[in-house]
Design goal:
2 copies of one chain form a homodimer. In chain A, α3 runs parallel beside α4. In chain A, about 60% of the residues are buried. Chain A folds into 2 domains: about 140 residues, 2-Layer Sandwich (60s Ribosomal Protein L30, Chain: A); about 170 residues, PurM-like C-terminal domain (Phosphoribosyl-aminoimidazole Synthetase, Chain A, domain 2), CATH 3.90.650.10. Chain A starts with 13 loop residues before the first helix and ends in a 13-residue tail after the last strand. With about 325 residues, chain A is an alpha+beta fold. In chain A, the strands form 3 sheets. Chain A has a 7-stranded mixed sheet. In chain A, strands 2-7-5-6 form a 4-stranded mixed sheet. In chain A, strands 3-4 form a two-stranded antiparallel sheet. At the A-B interface, α1, β1, β2, α3 and β5 of A face α1, β1, β2, α3 and β5 of B. β2 of chain A pairs antiparallel with β1 of chain B, so a sheet runs across the interface.
């Protein structure tokens, strides 16, 4: 008989304790987590703090190229990295549906532990709740993260300037199209995989080299590249000029989008970021990026301008220009 | 027609943006939150950091004496306070079920804003996900918190000593019995209310006066007083001797427990804590506590000893002695 999660595992009693000690602490090994205190006690950090939170409700929880556990670790590391912070610590909040297969839970916790080890960002505090069958969906994961921003680093939309180049760190829409086709059970012969990966090596490398010239970074998850560029255009009152032929996209992803009638500009990405950088160092930045495995497909996809404040304009392959509007509703719920 | 949450509100597009700007930022007003960046950027703090996370899945979401929003703010503040930290910042992660009444959501966000204002601990970063109807239950809330531990403060189970007095900061089992009777629709003429409140004033007052003599603190939420004392008895290899007649409990709560055949030692509390303090200052500590509104029913309920390592022993009203075992399963799921 398969072992499953029961309500007892969320009671705070002996069953909770067994789950934590026998399964969670097997893969999550930071000494502060092992204390099982009400909160973790961590050393003083010097520099500004970055603090971020994200809940992951992706469906399915296992998908080509990743799973909800790895996504939850890397996603929050990326949110910290996008503000120029070095990620230091993560928290882990699990909401598990009664009936979840214990083997599936173990796979997820293993995956969390592995992503945490690869990135060097430990889980230091956690919480587990169990909800009755039909009141959740297998597992939802919240991770929150603390990072530190070294002195002199100031990254954000307020720093974006006219003429900045816009770099995309890799191919577009891999995560979105993978989840969508997996969920719809459309078979593209296994050629589509998610791009979930951590971006902290990209950001630390760029900030080491060009601390003053990296103006803003953003990972285009929900709503895709189109949505992030629209938000930033609105906030900065600049226009974003992008060139379709320069946007990296895998042939399989492009084909799947054409077949399904989807615009990849609106599809989610996980291990990718948009970088706004001074034009003077854009080429050197690109060269640095391409030396990293997670940046080898990076490209300059456009620049900022002042002629059409608040707008995103796509220069198409056909030689036309079109407005890229903001996404209104959900192209695909539960993408992350 | 009542307005409700739709999947579009979780898309990251225009509908998400409207919800955040028109509802969330109406009640949650910290300037860093308003930036809507990937993470909040906060000033450097001096002292050790405390970091805590908790997901709240309480059912019902509104109950006599509180709601899930207030609970989520105060609960995480309490987890930080229990380690001797001053709570500084909170994150807010919402997982909303499609179909939630927007008026109910507004009540909850209002309640979060109010609890945050009363305690002076702002929400600085957030995230909202929407899951399809039937894949969640109205709303689940994760809050994570950062606090700072002043130099010289060291609180935790490792500091508990033989002969320490055990103080309970107020009446036992109010939250557990309120949720249980509300959920079962048993009417006790409105006399039962939850005790959700923040404990940071209690902890800061005590640590100001007796920094070296407050050894450990713990809020007995899930699993109640019985469970926390068992955990600490196991960790410290001391025994916990408590006296039934000294444990504060409201007459209505006691009556409800007797009627329903429940042991209040195992029922959840929210705005209460157990404090382990040097015997020499126990009476003064009690006097200080009783001057605070949230501590006016505080009492010394027992002490630690070495004769029965790892055990919790109740000296009953009838003059007997009995072992208080650890909770195995769920007396009541989704209590917090």
């Amino acid at each position: 008989m398969t072992k499953i999660i029961t309500l007892d595992h969320g009671s705070g009693g002996q069953a909770s304790d067994d789950l934590i000690k026998n399964l969670f602490l097997k893969y999550l090994t930071h000494p502060e987590l092992k204390q099982l205190n009400d909160s973790a006690v961590l050393e003083q950090v010097s520099g500004k703090l970055a603090f971020s939170t994200d809940s992951y409700v992706v469906d399915p929880i296992f998908f080509p190229g990743g799973d909800i556990g790895e996504l939850a670790v890397n996603g929050t590391i990326n949110d910290l990295s996008m503000m120029g912070a070095r990620p230091l610590y993560l928290s882990l909040g699990l909401i598990i549906e009664e009936g979840l297969d214990l083997d599936d839970l173990e796979k997820i916790i293993y995956s969390i532990g592995r992503a945490s080890e690869i990135t060097g960002v430990p889980i230091v505090t956690g919480d587990t709740k169990v909800v009755p069958k039909g009141k959740g969906d297998k597992i939802f994961i919240n991770t929150s993260g603390i990072g530190v921003i070294d002195s002199g680093i100031d990254i954000g939309p307020h720093r974006i300037k006219e003429g900045d180049k816009i770099i995309l760190s890799g191919t577009m829409a891999d995560h979105g199209v993978t989840i969508l086709t997996k969920r719809a059970e459309i078979d593209f012969s296994g050629s589509l995989t998610s791009d979930t990966t951590a971006l902290h090596n990209i950001t630390s490398l760029l900030l080491d080299h060009f601390p003053g010239d990296i103006h803003a970074m953003r990972d285009p998850t929900r709503g895709g590249v189109a949505n992030v560029l629209n938000e930033l255009a609105e906030n900065t009152e600049l226009n974003m000029e992008i060139k379709e032929s320069n946007i990296p996209i895998r042939a399989e992803v492009k084909a799947a989008c054409e077949l399904l009638g989807l615009d990849p500009l609106y599809l989610a990405n996980e291990g990718k970021c948009l970088i706004f950088v001074s034009a003077t160092v854009a080429d050197e930045t690109l060269k640095l990026l391409r030396n990293l495995p997670e940046g080898k497909m990076a490209a300059i996809i456009g620049h900022t301008d002042t002629q059409h404040p608040g707008k995103v304009i796509l220069n198409t392959n056909a030689g036309g220009r079109r407005l890229v509007n903001r996404l209104i509703g959900a192209p695909l719920p539960r993408i992350c």
